Amino acid sequence: MIKIKSLRSYYLEFPLVDPVITSFGVMKSRPCIIVELEDYNRHIGYGEIWCNFPSNGASYRFNLLKSIYHSSLVGCEFSNPEKLIDNITEKFKSLFVQSGDLGSFYNINSGLDCAFWDLFAKNQKLPLNKLLNDESQTHISVYASGINPSESQKKIKEARAKGIKAFKVKVGFNHSLDIDLLNSLSQFVSNDEMLMLDVNQGWTFDEAKGYLKILENYNFSWIEEPISALSKKEKFTNLIAATECNLAFGENIVSFDDFTFLGQNNRSKYIQPDLTKFGGISLIKDLSHTIQNKKIWIHFLGGGVGLFTSAHIMSAINPDAFLETDINLNPLRTNIFENDLEIIDGKVHLGKDFGIGGPLNFDTIDKYLIASSF
After folding, report:
1. Residue 236's closest CA among 223, 227, 224?
2. For 290-323, what is each residue's pLDDT tens digit?
3. No. of H helices and E strands in the chain?
4. Domains of the chain (ranges plus CATH)?
5. Statement: the pTM of the whole predicted model exceeds 0.70
6. How many angstroms separate the CA atoms of 239 and 253, rounded?
């Protein structure tokens, strides 16, 4: 039995020189909330809580974690991490229902679910990926993300220098810009490379149907979130059937049934859960038993704790997939652990450390710390 001795959390923020532009807003900094769960054997489990939006969302989630969760977690005992956080938080879930803010509840629970799994793996004296699949490989290929249209060729060159051969570019701002971008990239991206497009829910259903017809003339691997994640199932089904383009969904889905519904569509090839945003590792483990694993391409755009966690899970369930990795400078991703994250030959390499590894790099923590809680 594992007993939680302490919960520590860190709210960090890295100011961006080049803001990330999306169809719904601009990111001027990279926020990050990291949790540490320590047991009485001095093992520490790490998790990351999604907090990219809105601009003050990280501070808000950090304060919720500190004021509501702490007393329920310290002292709890467990022998199985699966969905443990859901059972622990059931007694105060109504607070979030009452406020209409289940999103923050899902985000915090997801990060804590990951921390419980990491702590469990460390107690089992196994790397996290080997806990789930003892034949897991020790690396995962990545694709470059966070690419603004105006600097797409520059960022693709940076990614190529790391051996990366797959790139996701943001679209959905206006139609002429999107077509101009695709025309400029059609000769720039080679046949042995992958190009993906991300609309970030920027189109209406009717816009998407019309625009996807035009995009069928271009060569790319998928187009991500062309319509709102809140769209009705019929619209997802109709849109998938109406185009020859491969569509990707999942980053903003918050229902296991919806993941299953999309994953079981024969035309749907790419399902993208974010383990720091909804459901954590427990959801992806369940999903891997419900849909074809080759369809699960984990979405992630945050710090190093979430990236290492995602890399372990991807290597365990879909080792032939590519993991999303922000190509922009962010020490909260590359320098959050004492052993820096490096991309070599287009891959994140996972060591033999138990869990996802560690310890945290407190030079980085101290430099970018906004607030902490113990």
Report:
1. 227
2. 999 999 999 999 999 999 999 999 999 999 999 9
3. 15, 14
4. 2-125+362-373 (3.30.390.10), 130-349 (3.20.20.120)
5. yes
6. 17
